[in-house]
Amino acid sequence: MQATGIPSHLLVSSEVRNMQSTVTQLKGQVTQLKGQVQQMAGEIARISELLGQQQVQHTNYVRDELNEVPKRVADHIVQEFNVQGVQPLRPSDVKDMLQDGLQTQKDFFLERLDLLSESMTASLTHLVQQALSAPPPSEAESTQQNPAASSREATAPSSSSMDQPTYSQEAGLPPDFTFPKCDVKTMWNLWYFGNSSYNNTGTRVGPYRLLQARQMKTPREKERLSRAKKVMAVLERLVVLTLRQDGLMMAEEQFTPLKSDDLSSDISSRSALESDGIFQKIISQFLEFVYAPPSSDSSGQQLRPKKKAKRPNEVMVCTLANRCSVDKADAFFSQQQQRLQQQSSSK
To answer: Which parts of this chain are annotated as the region Disordered (predicted)?
Structure first.
């Protein structure tokens, strides 16, 4: 052993001072951790309180809507009894009206419950993200005790100052993306133009017509996508059949359908005003056919419609997909083709 000339008690004293400094730093870290745990407990309590309030509000809403069911069914029956002396109602007609009214109410409540569930999930996710990203209360004190760390953090880029990412179907969807349950007018806009601000976060999602089933997380979302494709395919056939005569799209043969991709690109390339005009021109006659198909007796006399047609913002995509069977759509387009051919031959 080589002699250093330094007394041993000085070395021991230096080690003790180093240990005291380490213990002091550990105390500061424990205090900071305690503050973070207390803040997290407060955030969890606040989230629980907000969720409880939302649950009470949603429960009251569903209860009020359930109380309105008998009145809506009664109004529906009273309206359908207005036969205007054309044809008396039979018991089977009343039974069909009751079943149709109850099925409509059932679809309405199922759709609203899905929307409420998605809203609560989105709210909880947002609150948890806020709680996890909130700075601890003792961060300012920690910055004052360690100015070197403060200077290093000041040079790092802030995530809050960065632009929100833009997603497309090629780059991937946002982690919290869910295929929406919406009315047919909203789906028309999403189908061709996408969502410019998903969940009001500034994140853009491209046209929903480019989505694929493998990108959906749950079987319910895959079913929504499938129903949306079914409804939009019918609307696109109606665009090709009805609007070509107005010069909005060009083709050599009047009744030769264009490819779906070409038609979608044509609509997507138009302005929102033009797209809305196309939608308004085709949707009214289609809803009139789906909800109010006219009937006639053996002599060909026109009788009253079975149901009153609804407005586009009242018709959910899933409901329209259920009502629009393949046979019904083919019958509708066959009628439209005959009508257009008669108009063409009369000119």
So the answer is: 130-173, 294-314
